[in-house]
Design brief:
Layout lengths: L17 H8 L11 E5 L3 E6 L13 H20 L2 E7 L3 E8 L6 H4 L13 E2 L5 H9 L5 E6 L2 H19 L2 H9 L1 E2 L9 E2 L7 H13 L2 H4 L1 H9 L3 E7 L4 H20 L3 E4 L2 H4 L3 H9 L4 E11 L11 H4 L2
Parallel strand pairs: 7-8
Antiparallel strand pairs: 1-2, 2-4, 3-4, 5-11, 6-9, 9-11, 10-11
Amino acid sequence: MKENYRAWDIDIDALITLRDFIKAGILAPSSHNSQPWAFRLRNDFIAIVLESSRRLPASDKNDRQAYISLGCAIANIEIIAAYHGHAVDLVFTDSGAELRFSESKDKNSLPELAQYLTKRATNRSAYIKEPLPTKLRNEAQALVVEGTKLQFVEDAVQIAALAALAVDSSISAMEDIDFREELSRHVLPNTSSHKIGMPGFGLGFPLPISFILPHLIRRTNVAKLSRKQDMALFQKTPTIGIIETKTDMKVDWMNVGRTYERLALLATSMGYATAPWGAPIQTKDFHTHISSTLNLSGRPQMFFRLGRPTKPVPHAPRIPVERVLS
């Protein structure tokens, strides 16, 4: 296994120390696979903070996506801790959160998700057009973190409207030269040894095209070129997920990440996959059109596709624990 993928080669039964828990944390998804986290390890707690050098100033100006990513990492640590019989006392800070551990006396479904920490992958391929199982729907709602609200959109008319918003917002985002430059730095050839960024195979591109893709992104609005293909992808998408919050602060963003990662792991356990689509949340006022389309009362924070994938995808690379831990 290549060095930049070794983080996935772990045994969850062997993750028993606080340092080991961080090994689960770094498997979380993040925007552009930027992995914008840093961890500080103390005798009885783990602190997670935003690592400023891995921010995305062009596509994530207010750090919303970065803090959602931190929330996903927090969820993974909560899950591996629960698997090993620990409860987590979570305290949010200005730059992240502190996780303190004690013996768990409560029973919940979090430990059952632990075995899927190394199996979850963002899958942007086509999904099978089939209804969402009631079991997945109900168990997902039971995992929603307080302060967040999860909605599954399955109505064909609403999906078509949201698809148009997703595609149009992507085209709008790609008009920004700084956005394209930033994205191009995070798209990698399939054989790359880099530990940050998205290999072309994760975006559905074969090896030869993966070498020229960063240059193409830098020079042109590829979202315009892929509009027809992207609309067709949504036509085959059975479910779009939306996570919203009443307020719009860092703590909300981290809680959104916690909810999303729990759902992503639950979906993985049932043979389903998720794929976030950031543009309608981050670009201009497109999020207000999501709200009006779905009659939301809160602020939409995450927009993602959900379904049974037609093909598996490999994992994305990871920065090793020693480089994110102080």
